[in-house]
Design brief:
This protein folds into three domains: 56 residues, DnaJ domain (Helix Hairpins, Orthogonal Bundle), CATH 1.10.287; 169 residues, Sandwich (HSP40/DNAj peptide-binding domain), CATH 2.60.260; 105 residues, HSP40/DNAj peptide-binding domain. The strands form six sheets. Strands 10-11-15-14 form a four-stranded mixed sheet. α2 packs antiparallel against α3. The protein has 337 residues and is of the alpha+beta class. The protein is built from nine helices and 15 strands.
């Protein structure tokens, strides 16, 4: 397990205010929102968040200082009055967002109306009726922890008081003793180019509030991208079809192809066959986890004319007599002999 103090770049006697400032500074630097293509930065961000979750909780910090571990590895353990002022972290909030195909290409800023748990304003997130005095939890004796065994130094959050060390004798009528209540707010989210259906974007600290004043979880935006009538997407690459006349397929042509990033002239060589695929580099989707763009694959389809007049039919017969014979299999050969 990493040294949480070293992760945040602080000393063991650092105050809570200094811990918070160190976390905020590092979180801004290594946030996934500004390091979309840097997996190392994203891993550091997870370590920084983990270190802050433990060291920002006084009881969890004390347990870590003594034994170097907290049960579960990631969940800070609360205890007593200190924990009631800063309980465990809130749950993440998952919100689906539908994107037009073009917005997946360019990126977009959206304002999301979300319902989430927030600190109860009536009781100040204590969960108790204003003026009421909390009582010590009888299950853990007010420690907020229950030890896993007599021979181990590991403990877990008390299930009876959720790690607070206290029980609410007179619960707040507004939140029913939970310390949180549902509120609706608007979250502004910057969606980067390249998002695909099922992709997730994490916004730290915009999820549900934790009970009894605990820090918020994260807002996780899950995107669903609408289909495009022209392009089919597979990862970062795009696919489309291009109709050709017989003359263009036989003689070759230079045809403008519409792409997401402007028109491109595609050179069709003479003798191109229906179903042949051409690649146009860097004309696909923006890459979400790396720089650059994918490719565009164009499949040509030779269109056979219908309803020809007599003159045109005769011209095709004349051309057919000039072309080399094409074998059509053993059955055709047997008939002709």
């Amino acid at each position: 397990m990493r040294d949480y103090y070293a992760v945040l770049g602080i000393s063991v006697d650092t105050t809570q205010a200094q811990i918070r400032r160190a976390y905020q500074r590092l979180a801004r630097r290594y946030s996934p929102d500004v390091n979309l293509w840097d997996r190392e930065a994203q891993a550091l961000f997870e370590e920084i968040s983990e270190a802050y979750r433990v060291l920002s909780d006084p009881s969890a910090r004390t347990l870590y200082d003594r034994h170097g571990a907290v049960a579960g590895g990631t969940a800070p353990v609360g205890a007593g009055e200190e924990s009631r002022r800063g309980g465990r972290r809130g749950e993440d909030l998952h919100v689906p967002v539908a994107l037009a195909f073009q917005h997946a290409v360019t990126g977009i800023t959206v304002d999301l109306s979300v319902e989430r748990l927030s600190d109860c304003q009536a009781c100040g997130a204590t969960g108790a009726r204003p003026g009421a005095v909390p009582v010590r939890c009888g299950h853990c004796g007010g420690a907020g922890l229950v030890w896993l065994g007599e021979t181990t130094a590991r403990a877990e959050r008390c299930p009876a008081c959720d790690g607070s060390g206290e029980r609410v004798a007179e619960p707040c009528p507004a939140c029913r003793g939970r310390g949180v209540s549902r509120t609706r707010t608007v979250a502004r989210v910057v969606i980067p180019p390249g998002m695909d259906t099922g992709a997730q974007l994490r916004i730290p600290g915009e999820g549900h509030s934790g009970p009894f004043g605990g820090p918020r979880g994260d807002l996780i935006v899950i995107t669903r991208v609408h289909d495009d009538p022209v392009f089919t997407r597979k990862g970062d690459n795009l696919y489309c079809e291009l109709p050709l006349t017989i003359v263009e397929a036989v003689l070759g042509a230079r045809i403008p192809v519409h792409t997401l990033h402007g028109d491109v002239d595609l050179v069709i060589p003479p003798g191109s066959q229906s179903g042949q695929v051409f690649r146009i580099r860097s004309r696909g989707m923006p890459r979400l986890a790396a720089e650059g763009r994918g490719d565009l694959y164009v499949t040509v389809r030779v269109e056979i004319p219908r309803g020809l007049d007599a003159r045109t039919q005769e011209l095709f017969r004349e051309i057919g007599r000039l072309l080399p014979e094409v074998p059509h299999g053993e059955s055709r050969s047997a008939v002709r002999t």
